[in-house]
Every structure is written in C-alpha cells, then in structure tokens.
C-alpha cells in the first residue's frame, strides 16, 4: 500500500461515495407503489375467510374500513390443518367477488388471468361496517380454487383462505408516504416502543453507511492506524448496522425468534435450561404471538402486522406471566451460554417477551461488533501485507445486511458468529507466529465458547483440528514436539469445558448430550441418494441421477441469501437485485482466485495454511449438506426448493469471506485498491439501506 501522498484524492473519492449513497437512496425513495392502510380487522390474523371446499362461495365481513381506503385487495394463502397461514397463493382465473352493503347494489369483479391480486374499488361512503364481501369460484375443492406461489407443492397445506387489505388507489413514492408508513409501526409494538424505533433504526443504518465510508477513508489514508482505534471504529459501524435491524424488524419476525425468546425467559426465571419435553408457551408469549400476528405473517409476503390500533386490539397485559412456560421445541437442544447472557437485559428490564425482545436484540447487535473485530484481527494475520485493507474487510462484513439482520435478532447465531471469527483469528495467528501453551488455551476456550453458544459451533472443531494438524506437519521434528503441549492444551481445555457443561446439563437440568427437542419422523434414505444429494446441491446433475432439486440450490440458497432474504424468508428484494448480486458474487470469487494465482510464488510457503482454510470451508459445507439430506428424508420432502440449508450456517466462517473480498480488491493493484475500497464500502452501505427500506415496505408499506 503506497504511503499517503494522495489523501486529497482519497477524500474526493470518499465524498463521491457519499454522494453515490445519497443518490441511490433518493432513487429508492422515489420508487412508487401502493400504500397499505390496514386490513379487515381480524385480531391475530389478516385472514378474512376460508375457501370452503364443499361449496363455491366464501364470505367475510368488512369492518373498520379506513377513511382513505379506495381499494380492497384480496389476498389468498394456503393454510395448515390448524388454520395457520403457510404460503402465498393466487386465486384461480374465473373467481368472482361481490360486495354487498345495506342499500347498495351488488358489485361483481371477475378475477383476471394475469396472476395479480383481485382489487375492488371502494366508495368509502357506501362501505359501512358490516358490508359483506363474498367470493364465488368455479370449482368445488380448495386445491382448485387457488394456486401456490413459488416452486413446488407444500405437504402441510390443507386448506386455503383469503384476506382483505385496504389501500389507496394508484401508487405513491416513499417521499410522499414515508410519514404514514412509519406511523403504522407503533400499533404492533409496546406502547413505549412506538414509531421512534423505526426512525432511530433508519438513522442508524444511514450513520452506519456514511460512517463506513469515513472509516474506510481513514483506514486507507493511514489516519486510523493499525491499533485499537481501527478496531473500535469498525465495531461501532457493525453495532449500528445490526441495531438498525433490531429496531426496524417487527416483533417475532426473525427466524425461530419465539423459540429463542422462550428459552431466554425460562433462563431468566428458572436459572437453567428447560427439562426435556417441556415445550409449553408461556401466557405472555402466547398473547404476544396473537397480538403481533406472528403466525399469520411469516412466510406470507402479503400479510402484515397490525397497521392500526383498531386492527390490533388491546396490547398484551403486563400481568400475564412469562414464567409458566417451557421452551419451544426448536431451541430445546441448544446450550446455555447465549441465553444466560440474554437473560440479563431481559430480566433487568422486566418487560416480558413483548417489550423485552428489543433489549435482547440489542445485546446481539453488540456481539456483532465482536464479530467485526474478529474479522479485522484475522485479516491482519492472514493477509499481513494489507494492514490498511484489513479494516475495509471488517467494514464489508459489518455492512453485509444478511449478517446484520441475523445479528440484530434474538438468536444464538449472533454469539456463534463472534466466537467463530475469533477462532479463525487465533488459527491465523498460530500459522504466522506459532502456537504456545497460552495460545492453545485461548484457542481451546474460544472453541468451547462457540460450541456452548450453539451446537453448530462444534463444526468449528474439525476446522481447528485440521489447522492444528497442518501446524504440526509444518513444524515436524523438534519444533513439532515443542508445539505438542500447546495442541494438547487447546484440545484438553475444549474437551474439559464442553464435557463439564454436558455433565451439568444431565445432572441438574435433565438434558442429554444434545439437549431436548422433539423427534420427528425418522426416514431411511441411502448413502447413494445422499451422495447424489450433495453432488446436485453444488454441481450440475449427471444424466444418471434422479432430479432432487428445481434449479441450482447453490445459487438459490447460498448466493441468493448472501444478497439478502429477511424476515421468515418473506422479505425479498427485486429480482434484478439477485441477478446483479449473483454476477457480483462470482466476479469477486474469480478476482480473488486470480489474485492467488498471481501471488502463487509468495504463497508457496503457506500452502498448508490455505489448505486448512479450504478444508474448514469444505467441512462446513459437507456437514450442512448431510444435515440437509437428513432433514429432507425425515420430513419426506419432495423435489423442490424447500431445503434445510441456509447461508447463515456458514457465517461462523465470515472471516474467510472477508479475506476473499480483500484479495479481490488487491487484484486491482496497490494504487487502485485504496480508491476502489472506499467505493465498495459505499456500495455495501447502499445495499444495507436498500435492504432496510425493503423490510420497512414489506411490513408497513
């Protein structure tokens, strides 16, 4: 990296990057769309009525129609045997809607064949409460009345229903409806967490984007140094980024949030994990789920939280107990460490699941700062020739919205990401400086902490083992014998801490090695089919293989989710964004590969280290694919895109992705890389802003 004679040029690029972020944000805000004003007033769900399979007519009653409503949009959803929405659907062509109000003639609207939702024009003066809205469809049998959106059937779908969303006619830009959108944040939240949470969240993501540009400029211009100031600056950007998601996303609209929140509440009140099999939902959490419409929103892109207080009804009573439940099954097998930390703000605030979720999310956001610090430390060791770009790599992780979204939720993944990045740092440090007993103890402690955050942290153990074996091989002979006590210290401390926890779990809390949970149906499967599954997930299908997926799961799962899929996978970006992101992803990977080829002579002495990192990634991918195959077999899932694998399961290795990004930047040369680094950080900030705005529009638009 050249010294800093070009600070003015770097400052100019930074200012242009700020302008780029501003113009991009203005362009996003100028996009227009329909403005939602509320729904048909059903507390706990936006579903208006079931499509009766025995008849050709289904009706619902319109109530509390907003004064400004000009359109009633009908949405269709597939529901399970309990009436809970599962997936978006479309009404079949030929469906008719009738609207009958006292003293008004019946209006009929025939559903068109273009796949759009049915919209009925409303004359507010002629639509009093009690107006009946009925659907008539041509066939008997629900499966003929709707068609599922997306790919493949849903084995849990047992029925169908329709709901009503009230909108203004035409389209309006974000500039014209921003105030109304943010006004609709408050009804679905605690009284003390009104619309200010959304305003603060938007402010924080703007500060994170602009602050990221400023930190990137200071880093490449040599103003930030290579000490603690750079680490603190990157950590602040990461915390602001994750906190914005914590504030903006509606309650319980993050993966498995109700499971993890129930675990936090149980630890806060009982001081330990739940005993096996106790999956009761506490009174307070059940009321929160009903009030926030948790089950009615997730997976259904058209359903929303209550947008008006009249839609929501009274908020959950503070008198309801959150100590009378167990732990929802999805989280029962998880270790205690994250939940014990989260129980502190939960218990101190005393706000219960409805109000306490936000404070636990903010704790997770603080852990994201640790993740970013670990990434910077890893890059300083793994890429010692690029100390100024190490901070840039940390910023690119801090502004990666998919990571920030998970790190701003109630989820032990937030702690696992932090310890995972620190484990990789210690591995890189050992390759560069060697491993002594103190370093071995630190590595073993970090491995134990990662595994006790979430059992998925055990996937880091093969990574560390591969690295330690590579270190011993590199230092074979006298040096290897000197390093052996450090390796034993690492493995011994990890095993001791993990086994002590498992012993306490069995003795005090009646948990086995993997904890509780509910067993599903166990399928059989075969080794041949599993090998075919793994092959088809990552590589093109061979002619002799039975098709197991629609399309490329590698692209649809890992690459697509890296670009951004939020909420319960029901907050998505425009299709062109995924095409652009996929192209950018492979260009970055190719550029990093080209950089390694160009520097192959300098890397000859680090072949074992590179192989250790590659083997770590391969071990993660294969273990996750194995779990994905077992998930598919146990639930008897058919061909499609519904898979177990998610990109967040790879995020403990975020530091490796940051190294790929920095290597791609280095390909442009020492003169160009500093300028390009500032621009790329600006684009990452714009990506975060766009993702936050897409989330706000999805829930409150």
| Radius of gyration, in angstroms, nearest whole number | 27 Å
Report the end-to-end length measured between terminal Cα atoms.
46 Å
Number of helices: 24
Q: Give the helix proportion (percent range).
A: 40-55%
Give the averaged pLDDT, no decimals.
82
Q: Quick one: overall form?
A: globular
Low-confidence stretches: 1-5, 42-48, 140-144, 150-154, 513-522
> Class by helix and strand content?
alpha+beta
Task: State the total count of DSSP E strands.
Answer: 15
Kindly estimate the percentage of residues that lie in beta strands according to DSSP: 5-15%
Q: How does the major sheet shape up?
A: 7 strands, antiparallel
Membrane topology: Multi-pass membrane protein
Subcellular location: Cell membrane
InterPro entries: DUF2142_membrane (IPR018674), LipidA_mod_glycosyltrf_83 (IPR050297)
Keywords: Cell membrane, Glycosyltransferase, Membrane, Transferase, Transmembrane, Transmembrane helix
What does this structure look like?
The protein has 701 residues and is α+β, with helices and mostly antiparallel strands. Helices cover 55% and strands 10% of the residues. It contains 24 helices and 15 strands. The protein has helices at residues 7-30, 142-145, 174-183, 196-220, 228-248, 257-270, 283-292, 294-297, 309-312, 337-349, 352-382, 387-398, 401-407, 413-433, 437-453, 460-474, 478-508, 527-538, 553-563, 575-598, 600-603, 607-634, 654-666, 673-700; strands at 32-33, 36-39, 47-50, 57-61, 71-79, 85-91, 96-100, 107-110, 118-121, 132-136, 146-148, 159-167, 172-173, 565-566, 571-572. The strands form four sheets. Strands 2, 3, 5, 6, 9, 11 and 12 form a seven-stranded antiparallel β-sheet that branches. α1 (7-30) packs antiparallel against α4, α4 (196-220) runs antiparallel to α24 (673-700) and α10 (337-349) packs across α11. It starts with 6 loop residues before the first helix and ends with a helix. The relative contact order is 0.12. Residues 1-5, 42-48, 140-144, 150-154 and 513-522 have low confidence and may be disordered.
